[in-house]
Amino acid sequence: MSRPLAVLRPEPGATATAARITAAGHQPLRVPLFHVEQRHWPPVAASDHDALVLTSANTVRHAGPQLAGLAMLPVWAIGEATARAAAGSGLTVVRTGTEGAETLLDTALEAGVRRALWLGGESLRLSEHPAVSRTVAVYASTALAPPLDAVRRLAGSVALAHSPRAAERLRHVLAEAGVPPSALRLAAISPAAARAGGDGWDAVAVAPRPSDPALVDAAIRLAD
After folding, report:
1. Per residue in 172-200, pLDDT tens?
2. Topology (CATH level 3) of domain 5-33+144-223
3. 35: part of which helix (H) or strand (E)?
4. Domain boundaries, the chain
5. What confidence tens digit (pLDDT) does each residue in 51-81 have?
6. Alpha-helix residue ranges (DSSP H) falling in the chain
7. Phi, psi of 199 (to 5 degrees)
8. Which residue intervals define the domain Tetrapyrrole biosynthesis uroporphyrinogen III synthase in the entry (predicted)?
9. pTM given for the model
């Protein structure tokens, strides 16, 4: 019998992931660990920067009308979903990274980027890099405390970690509910997310690309 696939991400991504799982003939199990909220952010002059770095589609969803004022900047994006969201908002994507933010920024630096503006969430990682001159948070991903019964139902599932922070939060709520990591399998969207989850899982798989379809495919392989 195939294991259920636990969707931990907030909306609207959770619905998209659950639909993808269902379409593949598997059972989604929703236990959201975060709630995403827009944050006010100060005006930024596009002329002060030579590129725009986006590492989450949530940035595009929650940046608001100010994002249009940065449309002159070339976008370096992490993941296909982020690139699609940026292009759909009228931005010009010049590179879509598939190996994490550090690799993308290293490539941007080699291409001559020295004053990139990095927009993201309040928990931005790798905020210091020679290609980046400023980081601005446009949204917050607030941790939720799911009911203990919901967390305990994760035992026997494959949990999908869409970020390092999600993997860390999953381990925390499991500990609070008295569920050992060995009761679950972990599908991580990146090596960084797998590392953040720590050791002791029944099995771990890392998506070959930082995208929701690739993560779902990796989780299905663990579930079967």
Report:
1. 999 999 999 999 999 999 898 999 999 99
2. Rossmann fold (3.40.50)
3. strand 34-38
4. 5-33+144-223, 37-142
5. 999 988 889 999 999 999 999 999 999 888 8
6. 13-23, 57-62, 80-88, 101-110, 148-152, 164-177, 191-197, 212-223
7. -105, 175
8. 17-216
9. 0.76
| Residue 12 CA to its chain's centroid (Å) | 13
Of 3.40.50.1100, 3.40.50.10090, 3.30.9.10, 2.130.10.10, which CATH number belongs to 37-142? 3.40.50.10090
Structure tokens at 136: 């601005």
Same fold yes or no, 5-33+144-223 and 37-142: yes
Radius of gyration of the chain (CA): 18
Neighbouring C-alpha atoms within 13 Å toward the C-beta of 178: 2
For residues 51 and 45, what is the distance between their CA atoms, to the nearest angstrom?
A: 12
